[in-house]
Structures are given as C-alpha cells and as structure tokens.
From TrEMBL:
<protein>
    <recommendedName>
        <fullName>ATP synthase F1 complex delta/epsilon subunit N-terminal domain-containing protein</fullName>
    </recommendedName>
</protein>
<dbReference type="GO" id="GO:0045259">
    <property type="term" value="C:proton-transporting ATP synthase complex"/>
</dbReference>
<keyword id="KW-0139">CF(1)</keyword>
<feature type="domain" description="ATP synthase F1 complex delta/epsilon subunit N-terminal">
    <location>
        <begin position="5"/>
        <end position="83"/>
    </location>
</feature>
<dbReference type="InterPro" id="IPR020546">
    <property type="entry name" value="ATP_synth_F1_dsu/esu_N"/>
</dbReference>
<keyword id="KW-0066">ATP synthesis</keyword>
<keyword id="KW-0406">Ion transport</keyword>
<dbReference type="InterPro" id="IPR036771">
    <property type="entry name" value="ATPsynth_dsu/esu_N"/>
</dbReference>
<dbReference type="Pfam" id="PF02823">
    <property type="entry name" value="ATP-synt_DE_N"/>
</dbReference>
<dbReference type="InterPro" id="IPR001469">
    <property type="entry name" value="ATP_synth_F1_dsu/esu"/>
</dbReference>
<keyword id="KW-0813">Transport</keyword>
<dbReference type="GO" id="GO:0046933">
    <property type="term" value="F:proton-transporting ATP synthase activity, rotational mechanism"/>
</dbReference>
<dbReference type="GO" id="GO:0005886">
    <property type="term" value="C:plasma membrane"/>
</dbReference>
<keyword id="KW-0472">Membrane</keyword>
<comment type="similarity">
    <text>Belongs to the ATPase epsilon chain family.</text>
</comment>
Length: 92
C-alpha cells in the first residue's frame, strides 16, 4: 500500500495545484470526506465548503470551493471544482 496520494486540483482555467499528499479532506454532497492512501475508489459530488490537503511534507493547504467533484482511484485523487478561493497555508 502506498504511503502517499497523488493529487491534482483543477478549476475551469486549468491545474491549480498538483503534488503528493498525506491526506485530502473535501466537502462531499453528503458530508465531509477524508481520503488517505489506500482509499477505495470513489466518485463524489462536492458542495460548497473547504477543501484541505496535507502535503507529503506536512504543509496544510486549504481552498474554499463552490462545488465540483472528486475522484479517487489507485491513490490518485482528482478534484475538479467550479470555482475556488486562493489557498491558505499552515505548517501545523
């Protein structure tokens, strides 16, 4: 089992962020969803809320998203959003 996720975050303009992550947390239509390495494949609609990524280096990134969808397959997470805010970062 892999110890990290490969994450691609895309909006209407193009790729916003791409890299390795320990964890992804997203506002799924039926509640907040957390993704770790080894997660089963899933396709989920996103609602408005905060998308958070903990990078492989431990940095916390966060964007406010206005909806979209999230796909997980073979430790690859693809997040396609309608619109999002500039990222906020934290080293916690």
């Amino acid at each position: 089992m892999a110890s990290s996720l490969e994450v691609d975050l895309v909006d209407a303009v193009g790729k916003v962020w791409s890299g390795k992550a320990r964890q992804v947390s997203a506002p799924a239509a039926d509640g907040q969803i957390g993704i770790l390495a080894g997660h089963t494949p899933i396709l989920s609609v996103l609602r408005e809320g905060e998308l958070r990524v903990q990078t492989a280096e431990g940095e916390q990134l966060a964007w406010h998203v206005d909806g979209g969808f999230l796909s997980v397959d073979s430790d690859t997470v693809t997040v396609v959003v309608d619109a999002l805010s500039d990222p906020t970062t934290s080293d916690h």
